Amino acid sequence: MKIEWKPKTKLDRAGVKVVKLFNDAGFQVFWVGGVVRNMLLKLPSEDLDIATDALPEQTEKILAKAKIKTKAVGKKFGTILAIVDKFPIEITTFRSEGDYQDKRHPDQVRFIKDYLQDAKRRDFTVNALYFNPIEKFLYDPTGGKDDLRRGLLRLVGNPKQRIDEDALRMLRGVRLSLELGMRLEDSSFAAMKTRVKFIQEISGERVKAELDKILAHKKRSEGLRLLDSMGLLQYIVPEFEKLKRTEHKAGNFHLEGSIFNHIMKAVEILQTDDLDVVYAVLFHDLGKVIRPIQIPDANAKGWRWSFRGHVELSGQLFAKFADKYRFSRQSKKRVLDLIARHEDRIRFRKMPQNWQIQYLLNLTETAALLEVWRVDSGANLRMEKGKKVWGQTVSATMARKLLAKIERAQKYFKLADGKLIMMYSNLKPGTQVGKKIMEVKTEIVLGKIKSKRDLKKFLQQSVKST
Predict the structure, then answer these.
(1) Which one has a higher pLDDT value, 393 or 252?
(2) Which of 12, 89, 98, 363 has the smallest number of CB atoms closer than 10 Å to its CB?
(3) Domain 10-146 adopts which CATH fold?
(4) E strands within 94-200?
(5) Is 19 helix (H, G, I), strand (E, B) or coil?
(6) Would you list the DSSP string of 238-278?
């Protein structure tokens, strides 16, 4: 089918250059996959894949003759990576595939000359579209264009077979559903539900790569709900199944129902692109599945569940998850720190203001932690004046106001100098000087120290009081 199209980006022009090289050498060649799908949807693309009937060795020769650098990233599977005008473009020979014993790579591939057969081994019909940008002709062997029009994500051919080949296609389907605003077609979704346990055979790195993309999306909570309805979530974070049956039963608060509902609501109202914050929110109350105990509840005139120690337990569960799914050391540490501090919001709002200031001054992840506090409080459905309302984010609001004060006071922080403090207070070098620096910064934030004279007066008074 002929379509109206012209190159708009540098990536487009790089892709056209490659197609010309292969056409001139007498080979079939097409853009394929996401770049074609996105072109039809009028969405941008960050990468470009090409399919051809040229063998890998022939591909290397064509590109070498054009002085284009290549890397044999997956040569035995037919893929050569070309660096064209600084853009990485994967060029893969048409192929048919054998079984996938490792649920990742085919046991064997056979290079073929027919793109129609090549299309049969692809994942979704909307990714099995072939486009020649020179002829401006679209080839659609699996009905992908019609599925695009109807907003359907359909697995190519036999859906169970496609999943048996690579179980990660289930996660990819959820991710594409979010990114493209499309619905998983019924038979494809049904096939996925029967095969969710196969996700356990996929490496942690590959699962995390897809899960990260789902959680990075602004509709991440919808993605998690879809993973749950499919049955996949129980194999990725098994504790969520028990959380669905665990409630606070606290009378006037946490009326959102199960702790699973609380976490989903917290994820829904998140306003961040920081994946470490997303994972911290996802896991912050997970430890509540372990050792809950019943205690008297005076407000409800009955009993409620208590989850003492859940912060530490949540951290332990996340640590195991992070090791299984190969988080970086830095990311794992950040998430664990956020989980460990998420309950500090309760203590924070009861602190004297000078303690609150010192708490914030000692934080290294202020914005991240306050977002965790905000959504944890905001996902608590409470009864106030006879009406159900979502929780007030008191601690986060108080902290942000104090942070604004701290920001305005920064210009005076040069007064919190160790040498000045020792001179005015007769303190010797050591831990006491560090404590006094923090006290001075606190007084600066409170507006009580703005000059060396103020500093000297404060230090002399504090020495007398001790």
Answers:
(1) 393
(2) 98
(3) Beta Polymerase; domain 2 (3.30.460)
(4) 95-97, 109-111, 130-132, 137-139, 152-153, 183-184
(5) helix
(6) THHHHHTT-B---SSS-TT-BHHHHHHHHHHT-----HHHH
Is the Cβ–Cβ distance between 276 and 296 less than 8 Å? Answer: no
- Please give the structure tokens belonging to residue 437: 């620096």
CATH ID of 151-236, from 1.20.120.920, 1.10.110.30, 2.60.120.260, 3.40.50.300: 1.10.110.30
Which stretches of 69-125 are DSSP H helices? Answer: 115-119
Helix (H) or strand (E) holding 229: helix 220-230
C-alpha span between 152 and 124 (Å, rounded): 10
pLDDT at 24 over 90: yes
Distance CA 381, CA 345 (A): 17
pLDDT of residue 462: 75
User: Per-residue pLDDT for 398 more than 90?
Assistant: yes
CA distances from 395 to 255, 335, 452 (A): 20, 20, 33
3-state SS assignment for residue 73: strand
Query: Minimum mean pLDDT among 24-28, 302-306, 346-350: which range?
Result: 302-306
**Residue 105 reports pLDDT greater than 70:** no
Euclidean distance between the first and final Cα of the chain, in Å? 88
pTM of the model: 0.89
